[in-house]
Amino acid sequence: MLNEVIEVMKRVAPLILEEVSLLNDAVSQIDEPCLLVIAGKFNSGKSTVINALLGERYLNEGVAPTTNEITFLRYTDLDIEQQQCERHLDGQYICYIPAPILKEMTIVDTPGTNVILQRQQHLTEEFVPCVDLLLFVIFADHPLTGSEIAFLRYSQQWKKKAVFVLNKADIYQNNHEVSLLCSN
């Protein structure tokens, strides 16, 4: 009987340790700000959406890809003229910005889901499991691409909340045209 109990304990112990590890991770994140990850293909308007959330133009915007690495946006009390950005050895780039919304959350600006460099794609996918909310930006004039669909399928496995932003929806004449786009 004692041997059976020992065998059961040996099988159950790793499961308990895994649950304890998950609980420890959850407890350590309680005091962390919400993590909002902005994703979408390059040139979908992610930086424009982030600037709108921040209430001021802090990030560069353009027709060429402007974000080529994972960029964490965190709050600072410093003036924008004293804005600091740091590059970490793990490939993260952290910018401290005096936008009040960043007191409550960290915004993560990602390279496009269709980036050429595999390292960037890997870094973007690395953050999906840690996300509190995924904001996925879609350019209204282009249907979803294969890379966007692949990224969204990848994201589904983590059961994270996602909000879709249809950027430049004002290029359509009426709500019916937007509805047609969204139904396709």
TrEMBL record:
SUPFAM superfamilies, sorted: P-loop containing nucleoside triphosphate hydrolases (SSF52540)
Domain of life: Eukaryota
Ranges where the G domain occurs: 37-168
CDD domains: DLP_2
Regions that span the bilayer: none
Gene Ontology molecular-function annotations: GTP binding
Alphabetized PANTHER family for the sequence: SARCALUMENIN, TRANSMEMBRANE GTPASE FZO
Protein name as catalogued: G domain-containing protein
Organism: Glycine max (Soybean)
